[in-house]
Specification:
The complex is a heterodimer of chains A (234) and B (464).
Chain A (H helix, E strand, L loop, with lengths): L9 E5 L3 H13 L3 E5 L2 H11 L3 E5 L7 H11 L4 E5 L5 H9 L3 E4 L4 H12 L11 E4 L2 E4 L4 E4 L2 E3 L3 H12 L5 E2 H9 L7 H15 L9 E4 L3 E4 L4
Parallel strand pairs in A: 1-2, 1-3, 3-4, 4-5
Antiparallel strand pairs in A: 6-7, 7-8, 8-9, 10-12, 11-12
Helix pairs in contact in A: 2-3, 6-7, 6-8, 7-8
Chain B lengths: L11 H56 L5 H8 L6 E6 L2 E4 L11 H8 L4 E7 L2 E10 L4 E8 L1 H51 L14 H48 L6 H30 L9 E4 H10 L7 E3 L6 E5 L1 H18 L3 E9 L2 E8 L34 H11 L3 E6 L5 E12 L6
Parallel strand pairs in B: 7-9
Antiparallel strand pairs in B: 1-2, 1-5, 3-4, 4-5, 6-8, 8-12, 9-10, 10-12, 11-12
Helix pairs in contact in B: 1-2, 1-4, 5-6, 6-9, 7-8, 8-9
The chains are: A alpha/beta (234), B alpha+beta (464).
């Protein structure tokens, strides 16, 4: 992946620690990103509404409106990728952040290079073999890959960018099992040691939107011990 | 507190047994002695009464017989012939007449004979030829003679002998019974204590929420034990929370410092050489500090007990290979046939950390990684990281898993990149996964650190 492709992409960085925010912002700018800085959740939401952004980086621990509330507020209006900055990968924070609608997370202490790699992975365009037909049908669900649109019973389903990418990865090889590790690599850009919870959360979010009954999925089925597969149309 | 008490020489078990034995011995001895005493007194009284009765009646007989004018004292005494080996004597005017031809009258004690001659009947127990004998004397003043009988008490003595033997035997048996009861009781007594031991062992092993179940008989012990453990748990958790809070708070400044130094470093070309050296040093140390904080936080987070929540089934060899692939230098991975499909249960990230720490340790202190071996070890899988260093001397093998321990050979700080936490984290993580870690020698020199993890199943045929 080349950074030129992402030059000028707008990253909204919401972080109350001024020193940390400004020095990381310098690093990100050196990498060619257009960084919009915000010192609080409220300021971040205002700037997002004013300028828009291609992705959002939000610290979970913010004074006033915290990162979870910011994430939920952003998620209500847009499908922009959101990465949360958390102090620990272990605790409640990650789960709660994913539930709020975050797509990924980075753990403090944040290293600038890693952060750039994360942001690039999130800004990557939907990949997958383009040999597939522009429109794929799975029962009543249609995937318009080029347009970035998914319809169910003709109605457009509002998927987040990450959910759409997960669906496209599964749809690239219908009927084939794709492991969590493969999804982590293809969608998030992680190696073997990515966090499986990212996959499981986004699969369940996806199911809630496209399955008739999310607790009894017919399209995206779990293959125990192996991963997930998208059931091909019969 | 330093109230070190001298240890008791005998354990509770032994003391309970001894107490029961001594108790049983005392009770049975008192019973035996008093039984013997009362029985003997009753038997002796009975015997004396019957001897007296017989002697008086014999004396009356003699008196009647000697009332006849032709009677002769010798015939009279011979005609009495008292039963049960008793002998009869008559003393008349300084001469002794005996019922037995072989015995003369001299066996009657002289003082006793004199007392009877004084005019009153008497009885006395004496020992004649080693046989306890009851001597009874009756004066017959109308004839001027005294009538005596000697009754050997040998039968009574042997009866008492048998009684004494029986009572002694019973006393000994009772004492032995006391030992048995004491043994059984102390076992029952110690059983709840065993529960305490098990609980204490669990707690020492890190299961801090372990408590003793309520037991009405052990109420004070259970209460104070549980209270103590509660206080201990609270204190440990408070300490851990504090450590976690501190390290947590350090993360933001470390991020800022790290990012700043990275910025400086990216401009290193335009800095004067001294400043450039300073930046490099700073970068190196901040990196180490950052990893140390990371390690401390991991250790602090470990006691939270939430680890098992993230456990999933993991293909061991894939995990090892993925870790090896992430190294700067290629690391050869040897897999023993039959272990390729081993599935373990654990936290992917923690196990990754274990392997990374072992590889870092081999690089930092062990002269470089030689390779990783995955082998079968009974129901478990063993992952060994081999290094090219001088090996670990046996006396250091346990200690290298302590926090901030650095081997004597690598005591100098300058130039090392280690945090001193790597192997401690390995040990903690492995323990959380129900595994073990040990240090040995690599065949051909160098150290081999082996992590043994339980294998839960075999991988199904994987379609990738």
């Amino acid at each position: 992946m080349s950074s030129t492709e992402q030059t000028g992409r707008r990253v909204l960085f919401i972080e109350d620690d001024d020193h940390m925010r400004s020095v990381l912002a310098v690093s990100l700018r050196q990498e060619g990103f257009h960084v919009i800085e915000a010192g609080s959740g409220e300021e971040g939401l205002r700037k997002l509404a004013e300028h828009g952004a291609d992705m959002v980086l939000v610290d979970l621990r913010l004074p006033g409106m915290d990162g979870f509330a910011v994430t939920r507020a952003i998620r209500r209006d847009t499908d922009v990728p959101i990465a949360m900055v958390t102090a620990s990968s272990d605790t409640y924070d990650v789960v709660a952040g994913l539930e709020a609608g975050a797509d990924d997370y980075v753990v403090k202490p944040v290293v600038a290079k890693e952060l750039c790699a994360r942001i690039r992975a999130m800004l990557r365009r939907v990949s997958g073999p383009s040999a597939n037909a522009a429109v794929q049908r799975f029962g009543t669900v249609e995937i318009h890959r080029e347009a970035g649109v998914v319809r169910r019973d003709g109605e457009e389903v509002p998927l987040t960018v990450t959910q759409f990418r997960v669906l496209c990865e599964l749809a690239a090889t219908p009927g084939w099992v794709i492991s969590r590790a493969q999804l982590l690599e293809r969608v998030w850009g992680y190696d073997f040691f990515g966090d499986d919870r990212l996959v499981d959360f986004h699969i369940s979010g996806l199911r809630a939107k496209i399955e008739r009954d999310a607790s009894n999925p017919e399209l995206i089925v779990t293959v125990r011990g192996l991963g997930y597969k998208l059931v091909p149309p019969t | 507190m330093s109230t070190a008490r001298r240890p008791r020489r005998f354990g509770l078990h032994a003391r309970v047994i001894v107490a029961f034995a001594v108790g049983a011995a005392l009770v049975s001895a008192v019973l035996a002695v008093s039984t013997f005493y009362f029985v003997r007194r009753a038997l002796v009284d009975q015997q004396v009464q019957s001897v007296l009765r017989q002697t008086y009646s014999d004396a009356r007989l003699v008196k009647l017989e000697l009332g006849a004018p032709t009677a002769h004292i010798g015939d009279a005494v011979a005609s009495v012939a008292p039963a049960n080996d008793a002998l009869a004597f008559i003393h008349s005017g300084g001469t002794w007449y005996s019922s037995s031809a072989s015995v003369s009258g001299t066996t009657i004690p002289a003082t006793f004979a004199k007392a009877v001659r004084g005019g009153s009947a008497a009885e006395q127990r004496v020992t004649l030829d080693g046989t306890p004998t009851l001597v009874v004397g009756v004066p017959i003043p109308s004839l001027g003679i005294q009538y005596f009988e000697e009754h050997p008490l040998g039968e009574l003595a042997s009866t008492l002998q048998v009684l004494a033997t029986v009572l002694t035997t019973v006393a000994i048996a009772t004492t032995l019974g006391g030992v048995l009861v004491g043994w059984a009781v102390s076992r029952r007594l110690v059983r709840p204590l065993n529960e305490v031991v098990v609980a204490a062992t669990d707690i020492a092993g890190g299961t801090l929420d372990r408590r003793l179940p309520a037991d009405p008989d052990l109420q004070p012990l259970v209460e104070s034990f549980n209270h103590m453990v509660g206080a201990l748990q609270e204190r440990i958790e408070r300490d851990a929370r504090f450590a976690a809070d501190v390290t947590h708070e350090l993360r933001s400044p470390i991020t800022t410092i790290g990012a700043s130094i990275e910025l400086l470093d990216s401009q290193a070309g335009s800095l004067p050489p001294e400043a450039s050296l300073a930046v490099r040093t700073l970068r190196f140390e901040v990196d180490r500090f950052s990893r140390m904080v990371q390690g401390l936080l991991e250790i602090a987070g470990m006691d939270a007990g939430a680890a098992a929540e993230h456990f999933t089934e993991l293909p061991l060899v894939a995990l090892v290979q993925a870790t090896a692939a992430g190294r700067k230098h290629p690391v050869p991975v040897g897999v023993e046939p039959g272990t390729e499909e081993a599935v373990i249960r654990g936290d992917k990230l923690r196990l990754h950390q274990v392997l990374v720490n072992l590889l870092d340790n081999a690089d930092t202190y062990g002269g470089g990684v030689v390779g990783i071996e995955v082998e079968r070890e009974g129901p478990n899988a063993a992952v060994s990281v081999d290094d090219a260093g001088p090996g670990v001397p046996p006396e250091e093998r346990d200690r290298i898993f302590e926090r901030f321990y650095r081997g004597a050979a690598s005591g100098r700080r300058g130039g090392t990149t280690g945090t001193g936490l790597g192997l401690a984290l390995v040990a903690e993580h492995v323990r959380l996964h129900g595994g073990t870690v040990r240090v040995g020698d690599r065949p051909g020199g160098g150290a081999r650190i082996t992590v043994v993890l339980p294998v839960v199943s075999q991988l199904p045929a994987v379609r990738q």
